[in-house]
Amino acid sequence: MKNIAIGGFFHESNTFNPIVTGEADFVVFEGVEIYGSGDAFPLARGIADFFKEKPDYNLIPLVFARAVPNGEVDEAFYNRLKDRFFALLSEAPQIDAFVLALHGSMRVKNLGSAESDLLSAIKEKYPQVPVFCGLDMHATLTGAMLNSLTACVGFKTAPHTDAWETGRKAAEMADLHLNHRVSLSLGFKKLDCLIAGEKSETDCEPMRSLIGELNSLEREGKVVSASYLLGFPWADAQENGVTAIAVTVGDPGKASEYADFLAHKFMQSRADFAFSAPAYPPEEALKLALGDSCRPVFVSDSGDNPTAGSTGDNTTLIALLSQELSSLARTKKILVAGIFDPCAERICVENFGSEITLKVGGNFDTKHCQPVRLRGIPVKLVNDFGVYRSDLVLFRTAEFDLIITSKHIGFTGTELFSALEIDHSKLDVIVVKLGYLTEEFKTLAAKSYLALTEGCSDEVLARLEYSKKFDLI
User: Fold this and answer.
1) Low pLDDT (below 50) residues in the chain
2) What's the CA gap between 315 and 336, in Å, rounded?
3) 37, 399, 460, 469: which sits with the fewest CB atoms below 10 Å from its CB?
4) CA–CA separation, 81 vs 106, rounded Å?
5) pLDDT in tens, 348-376
6) Distance (Å, rounded) from C-alpha 221 to C-alpha 27?
7) Coil, helix or strand for 300?
8) Is the peptide bond before 127 cis (omega within 30 degrees of 0)?
9) Residue 266 in 3-state DSSP?
10) Is the pTM here over 0.85, yes or no?
């Protein structure tokens, strides 16, 4: 019987966002809780599901924590997670392997890379124990991480729909190493380039072909796993950038050779990367959407995408709809999803059903926008929505309906609309704080536009202030 320690921390940390992500923003599972709560952490569930099918393994679940991408993580909270991780580990029998679910771009205030810190501590305390992990496609591979890992594998889809499969693949590599006594070699090639997230959708070229190359190498048995880890463009980190990864049986030279090959393929495609949806300055994107006769038309507020760690309270598009474009907006049925503003949400609860003037947004992202005053009525309230238990308000103005949230959450699917009893089929325009549309939104959208708003997740990377010179794609 082999003892497998599983656990993981999953957060994408945007250093351009001033919010410090704390305990209230995270969902934390400990020990066997992961078996009942794994749907909230599919990467971890993929690992657990694989080993639960194998009678010769004893799973030792430790600490699992994840949050919606946001600003850097609070140092004291991270240290409590880490301390609890090792406290549970100290009570466990001798460990034969670690198989972890990590994002790869979680950053801690005053500390830097959380994965570097955690993996280095594991390596120091358990130097002979192999470490495997599944990673997000936007992981930032650091030297400390590479020095600590036996093997890793990243998502192959963007939007990310293969988290469970990636966890299972990480577990399969651990099983290959432990049960079949196979030595694995990890090869990598780092590139000092950064690519905007909305230029790397895997249903579009050139990422479709690049991912196809990874799948071919795995299918033909040339490598155990192959990944492109793109780094996280909204983090000002010295070790940021694209990393090509190849894991082979035995031969380290072959692993490095395949990683070099994949890196070369990526750079050959550099000029072909482009936004996966028509992209325009904010006012132009809104005018086009308001002028369309099909519905619903989606407009992505890409510079303030909470699932890329932005603040979620940028008011650029709200200001345009309620001011310069108000006459056009009043001719359409529009939903804005949404804005993160706990204070505005509380005021709406206190004045439910009454017409009020409400100041919204611009509390955190004070660099790119200002608060906007809206006249309207709070018409719907929902408590404890979703895994992060946010309260929701639907605030109705003459120009649009606005979803206001009490917590920093993502706007990724129609469950939010259903909770507020919104019939999306009757909407002309849906403005959503997102980049590329999720699969669910793609099936709904008659048409979509990317609004290139300035914000903490600005898709025009040249507008961001990096401390290192990167090749920006």
Assistant:
1) none
2) 11
3) 469
4) 13
5) 999 999 999 999 999 999 999 999 999 99
6) 38
7) strand
8) no
9) helix
10) yes
